[in-house]
Amino acid sequence: MNAPIALITGASRGLGKNTAQHLARQGSDVILTYRSGADEAQALVREIEALGRRAVALPLDVSKSGSFPAFAEEVKAALARVWQRETFDHLVNNAGIGIHAAFAETTEAQFDTLVAIQLKGPFFLTQALLPLIADGGRIVNVSTGLARFVLPGYAAYASMKGGIEVLTRYLAKELGPRGISVNVLAPGAIETDFGGGAVRDNAQLNAMIASQTALGRVGLPDDIGGAISMLLQPGNRWITGQRIEASGGMFL
């Protein structure tokens, strides 16, 4: 039986990288995308190959939706070259950026950047890749706990993620006839370099968040990579159209 193939956007670092590592350890092959971290992406390919799995790294800027048809052709070519297949099984829409700005000070340029990367990008990338996703496959969209609870400074960012959560339900409904399940994974505060690494590097902020989390700590990348890979396991084929928050019980 062929190993499942997962395509993960923004996988050269952070949560995308951790997800790729989890999936590879659990027997998946990986197509990973990167925007600027080519060296990091190739290092991850080698790491996955050392686990006995196959991997390919492809450049992709999710803010440039006009490039998606050409990217889909690159994916198609990689599938034929490396796997002798026409489809892949799992899509993880992970790539993103964080912009922190008070509502009153958020610029139109910041808003438009977030729309392009966090909402328009996943919408049209998924559309472009649909012919290459196998029937019975899975899609996981990455949102944020900030779509449920509120911390000042994330009005624009969280609004885009709220859109992703609604889109997830529509995709689940419309792709259901193909047996494709679609869910959204919403991380809480995680110790990464995301948004300048504030949660990781600001001890006061870290302690405040930990005090408001049922499990008493801030999240780690491994918590999210494990949760996403869990959603892609065979035993979870009956879960679709759902928002799963991986926040350790933040602001319950």
What do these coordinates show?
With 252 residues, the protein is an alpha/beta fold. The protein has helices at residues 14-25, 38-50, 68-83, 108-129, 155-175, 198-201, 203-211, 221-231; strands spanning 5-8, 29-34, 55-59, 88-93, 133-142, 181-187, 243-246. It has one domain (5-190, 221-246): Rossmann fold. Strand 1, helix 1 and strand 2 form a beta-alpha-beta unit. Helix 1 packs across helix 8 and helix 4 runs parallel beside helix 5. The termini are far apart.
As residue ranges, the low-confidence spans are none
Name the CATH superfamily assignment. Answer: NAD(P)-binding Rossmann-like Domain
Total DSSP E strands: 7
Number of domains: 1
How do the strands and helices of this protein lay out in sequence?
Elements: E1 5-8, H1 14-25, E2 29-34, H2 38-50, E3 55-59, H3 68-83, E4 88-93, H4 108-129, E5 133-142, H5 155-175, E6 181-187, H6 198-201, H7 203-211, H8 221-231, E7 243-246
Parallel strand pairs: 1-2, 1-4, 2-3, 4-5, 5-6, 6-7
Helix pairs in contact: 1-8, 4-5
